[in-house]
Design goal:
Length: 306
Amino acid sequence: MSAKKTLIVPIKVHAIYQEDDSAVVGQTFNQYPNHNNLKLEVKMLKLKTSTTWSFLLILALSVMLFTWACSQSEKTEQTATPKPDAEPTAEAEAFEYTPAALASLDSYNLNCGGTQIDVASPVAEITTAIGDSSFLYSVKPLTDCSGIFHRVLKGMKERCPEQAYPPIETYRDTRDLARWYNEQGKLILVKDAIAHSDLIKPGAVMFYGQRATEYKDFTAEDLFKRGTGINHVGVVVKVHKDDAGQVASYELFHGHGRPGKTPASTTNYHRREPTRATYPPYGNGTEQWVAFATLVGSADKMLTAK
């Protein structure tokens, strides 16, 4: 009986597969005792290769899913409804510049450097400093009534430069100043002093007519005429009220008196009930109060808050 012979088939198989995290490249299988063993080894090689690619595919899908989730989150944040801006406060609203509205205020305030201030404080500081300088009336430049008033404006401009001020080159005298305030929409004609007494507060600009002259029916243009219109100007620095809350009198800072004799100063003889029959209510001696304006600030920059 003849002996069984084993068939040896010399086959070389080159494969790339992963084993224990190490790449095995070009591994050679020289001989296999039979085809069954060869098939088994090839199957094992295919299995390892399939497992490796499955792992890589899962990893790639995971990365893609994570990236997509992040992008969706960013889009959500970008498309989120923005929060509405804060509602504007009453202080930022434009002020209705009318006698009734002005009379309702406790004081004349304005926006100075982004802060709301009462004009009374800087006016007191400025007029005190000018008064201490003892500028005699109508001796040097800017020492008459309108010149002293321009000095007050200069002090305000140094503190609140963003506000509007009349250029001295084109609005030098009292009538020019009244015209400038009228152009700004801030000049209010006063035909009844008692009815307009609530306008008198620190920071009020007071315009007066000619001496011993009664003004009844007049226009702004009438007040701008030299010799018959406005004759004097000053600024209120303090107000005194009676028990009923009415303005009993006020103190006025202005250039006044005899040229070369009287310094710019504050006077207190401006009364609701004058001590002399020839003095009109709230006037400057015999000069009638004929027009009013707030010292600084365009009409659309006044603030409503008290």
